[in-house]
Amino acid sequence: MTAGTKIRNLMRLFDASDAPVWAIDPAGKLVYLSAATARWLGLDVEQLLQRRAVAGSPVSNDPLDLLAATLSPPPGLKSRGTASLRVQPAGDAKHRIKPIDVRFVRVGSADSSLTIAIGGRFNDRVPDEELADAANVRQQLDAWRKRHAAIATVATAGVSSSAKRMRARIHVAASVRTHLGFFGPAGSCCESIARRVHQQSAPREPIAIVDGPLMDPELLDASIVPVVNQLANSAEAKATVLVRGLDEMPLDAQRHLVELIGSYNDRLRLIGLCSDQTTLDATADEQAPANADVREVVVGIKPPQRHIDVAIADLLASLTVTIDPLASRVQDIPVLAAALVDSHHAARDGVGERLSRAAIDALVIYPWPNNVEELDAAMRHAVRNATRESIAPENFPLAIRSYRPGDSLSRRKVQSVSLDEMLESFELKMIKSAVEISDGNRAAAARLLGITRSRLLRRIDAVESGAAKSPPQTPKSSSPSDGDRS
Which residues fall in a compositionally biased region of kind Low complexity (predicted)? Predict the structure, then answer.
């Protein structure tokens, strides 16, 4: 083990102790680990030197980087100079590392300070409720990282039943190579989770990523030509195609994708990312007659529907992962936010390193329309704008710090009463006009509108279905003349 000349004698004394001891320099890097630390961790600690011991900051998926991050001090050390934490190092399946209580002591000034960590039993902790809360959340995060290191993207953290079910499905998905469907709202990090699952279930297997809404059969072939060439050149090769917005992919492109998968005997795997509004029992629209009329409905037009071809649904039915909206995972918000603060603080985005109780209260009541991605952006903003270690509500973006319960309800009311109805009415008029100009030719009408024919058919079907389900209006009088007009 190496150490600077000035502290070499002190390090010899630490090596003689049976208590694990390590030292962290001002940059957050491990500069010394004692012999007892080597015995506790069960490895040659020379491998950990100069790795960052900062919570949430592993620079790679290297297990040693992950291990070094778990040796970092808890929040509050900079201001208090001392802090305690139950350290839970991330081991592997063959070697379980026992957690121990550790006292961290910060010695020296800011630019030349050294943090010494000493394992043992300490019962003289200074009571501070907010720091205790932060340390408790940190321990939850360390336990989550330790148990779920392979899939430890921030979106999977949490203690709610929803988070537990999601992690259980992801663990299964990461252990077997099969077609996968991910269903979640916008901003729920479906793609990052899917990529991690792909890395675990099919390491070194090439992957092609395509945007479903933009595809047609010819463009799909061009987008995945590299992986298809590998499959064609070797009977042993395997590949994966990840489709963003699979439920918005035109049906002809979906069916072509099914043909490609079938032609390679499932050597081509599908990972589909879909909206949480899509279900696997959705079926494809039937081709409507070219001269069908478009009936005008003033209100009640349904939004564009998302569809998955029945053959695609059969492929994905074997294993799906559902990611619930963040607003329904209120229990998880403090843990998710703390993990993101750790990450941005470790990236040196700012001085903020923990959330105050008032800040957590503000996060819990906010509805998070853009889910984890919005939470990530908010925590980056908060870490950058905080002027001290504790992040307060005023450090959040305006939308969050000014939010009051009931705001979202009033916004939804405005949208549903005015904007949505106006847009839907305008859309209906455009469709009707295009069909009339094209003399009933649906393909020509779709070209005029700049959309696919299948999308036009879905909109026409939605209008007709809405009109069929609308209750008939009661006539104002029962005179024969009224009956003649019906």
Answer: 469-486
